[in-house]
Amino acid sequence: MAVTVACRNCPLRQQAGFRQNSAAELDFIEAMKVGHIDVAAGRAIIPQGDAHPHLYTLFAGWAFRFKTLTDGRRQILNLLLPGDLIGFQAELFDAAVHGVEALTDVELCVFSRAKVWELYRNHPELAYDVTWLTAREGAVVDENLVSVGRRSALESVAMLVIHLHKRLKAIGAAQGDSFEMPLTQEHIADALGLSLAHTNKTMRRLQQLGLFQMQGRRLTLRNGRALARLADFYDQPPMRRPLI
Amino acid sequence: MAVTVACRNCPLRQQAGFRQNSAAELDFIEAMKVGHIDVAAGRAIIPQGDAHPHLYTLFAGWAFRFKTLTDGRRQILNLLLPGDLIGFQAELFDAAVHGVEALTDVELCVFSRAKVWELYRNHPELAYDVTWLTAREGAVVDENLVSVGRRSALESVAMLVIHLHKRLKAIGAAQGDSFEMPLTQEHIADALGLSLAHTNKTMRRLQQLGLFQMQGRRLTLRNGRALARLADFYDQPPMRRPLI
DNA sequence: CGGAAGTTTGACGTGTGTCAATACGAGTGG
DNA sequence: CCACTCGTATTGACACACGTCAAACTTCCG
User: Fold this and answer.
1) How many CB pairs under 8 A join A and B?
2) Which residues contact B9 (CB under 8 A, 6 or more apart)?
3) C or N terminus of chain B, fewer CB within 10 Å?
4) Pick among B125, B150, B198 to test the A interface (most A CBs inside 10 A)
């Protein structure tokens, strides 16, 4: 069960990589927040095609955005981690053109759609943050698109592992070179545009090569350098909000 | 040569799908605009990895965002058409993590990065538009990712053709069922994650099936319904800005 | 006319998909 | 504590969509 905390004391804000908000902003955020809900692993947060979604922030757990074709083929667009915004595209457009599903049990902060405009009018710093978060999500999708389109299966999985590790480190959810890994091989396949069987063989090979290791649901990097070389991943400096 | 027009008279604004701006907004936009430049087809608008890019609006012509791996493999992330914003991610992050290249000869409106913050502070409607444009670009990338990851070559090309036609119609750049098509088969291959040879065979096949036709650089839809069925494309209502 | 850029085609190889069987691990109920 | 079950992981045999390579052809343009 979630222990509801005032936004000003939100543990996410303590993390490096989160901007310090002013008192006025925190007041507004708390006024805009209308609830805090739990969603069980595997349940929909926003059904694909839904017309009147809410606006959320992912407080705890993992989720993912996806699209499915009518015959059932599914593409995972990107993974959502604590601190990510959910449902803003649906706010902007008429209906959600993608679905969002909880990957683990998840806690969401619910915000009032009605106050979005007030946010833009009275809190430009927050408006800027919203744009920033939207663009950052886009950058993640871009990177995934390169994997799916131009990397081999081996390279794609290497990229996924190293990229995940980097994101988790940034929010303090990695322990050194290892982290909790709730993704099923089917999720990985759907994220990378691969089949389940081939995903399995590829992960197996990367582990035999000594690049990483899985013990239960915990993934440990064994040779980050080699993974990065394989994935053609040169670390960017972490993304910072430039204004403010 | 471009005939520079005051933003208030910008022909793009006449198109359906563009929001009406207030006089104050138009004043601000004109003050923020610092130039109007031409870029020849094939030249870089923003080099991949550049640190201090400008902020642009695509006024005329086509461009595309892309990423390349160090060994030269290239993935086109999405196509940019008149009215699209260019260089905003680079404004938000430390450096452009992707490149932008002119596909045809292109005209760009150049805007002052220094005034972005003023835009957010004094013109929330415009700030909202910026977020909206960012999210809409994301939606296009999402759709492309589904093609690359989960559609066959035949389906992907069908999707590209029909999606392009839809976007061009929305900005008045299509003539009925046909439009000017500056993409080279190599561009299409790089956008869809295919090889050049296979892209050619696939396009050839779709034409033999009577789904579309190319005469020189002009593409004409011959059976939009069948294309849509192949691509599993159900038309969404056009995206509208909800506020204001 | 010559050359560069783009398109088309064919022969051939392979990375990845498909299908199907088996093994594993964690719950659940007897 | 043992079946049983269900989701997940693993593996092998086989097929095919797509990649690679290479050559010719077509268009355009300086």
Assistant:
1) 162
2) none
3) N
4) B150
Nearest one of B110, B92, B100 to B54, comparing CA atoms: B110
Query: What does residue A62 show for φ and ψ, rounded to 5 degrees?
Result: -115, 150
pTM: 0.95
Task: Answer whether A145 sits within 8 Å of B146, measured CB to CB.
Answer: no
Interatomic CA distance for residues A22 and A33, integer angstroms: 16
Q: Which residues of B touch A95 (CB under 8 A)?
A: 236
Residue with tokens 């993912």: A64
Residues comprising chain A, all counted: 244
CA atoms within 13 A on the CB side of B233: 26
Contacts 24+ apart (CB under 8 A), B112-121: B112/B32, B112/B33, B112/B34, B112/B55, B113/B54, B113/B55, B115/B31, B115/B32, B116/A243, B116/B55, B116/B91, B117/A124, B117/A128, B117/A243, B118/B28, B118/B32, B119/B28, B119/B32, B120/A124, B120/A125, B120/A127, B120/A128, B120/A243, B121/A124
Q: A62: which 2 tokens?
A: 């993992």
pLDDT in tens, B181-239: 999 999 999 999 999 999 999 999 999 999 999 999 999 999 999 999 999 998 776 66
Kindly state the tokens that stand for B185.
């088969």
Per-residue pLDDT of chain A (244 residues; tens, 9 = 90+): 445 667 888 888 887 677 888 999 999 999 999 999 999 999 999 988 877 668 999 999 999 999 999 999 999 999 999 999 999 887 777 666 899 999 999 999 999 989 999 999 999 999 999 999 999 999 999 999 999 999 999 999 999 999 999 999 999 999 999 999 999 999 999 999 999 999 999 999 999 999 999 999 999 999 999 999 999 998 776 666 544 3
Single out the residue of B73, B74, B39 nearest to residue B56, CA to CA.
B39
A30/B contact by beta carbon, under 8 A: no
Residues 37-96 of B with CB under 7 A from strand C: none
Question: Residue B138 in contact with residue A89, Cβ under 8 Å?
Answer: yes
Tell me how close the Cα of B145 comes to any Cα of chain A, in angstroms: 6
Please name the residue that has the structure tokens 């296009």.
B140
- Selecting from B70, B98, B142 the residue whose C-beta is nearest the C-beta of A67 gives B142
**What's the token pair of residue A190?**
């759907």
Is A76 within 8 Å of A64 (Cβ atoms)? yes
Rounded-to-integer distance, Cα A85 and Cα A108, Å: 10
Q: CA A201, CA B13: separation in Å to the nearest integer?
A: 53
Inter-chain touch B149–A192, beta carbons under 8 Å? yes
Tell me which amino acid residue B220 is.
Answer: T
CA of B178 to C1' of D26 (A): 23
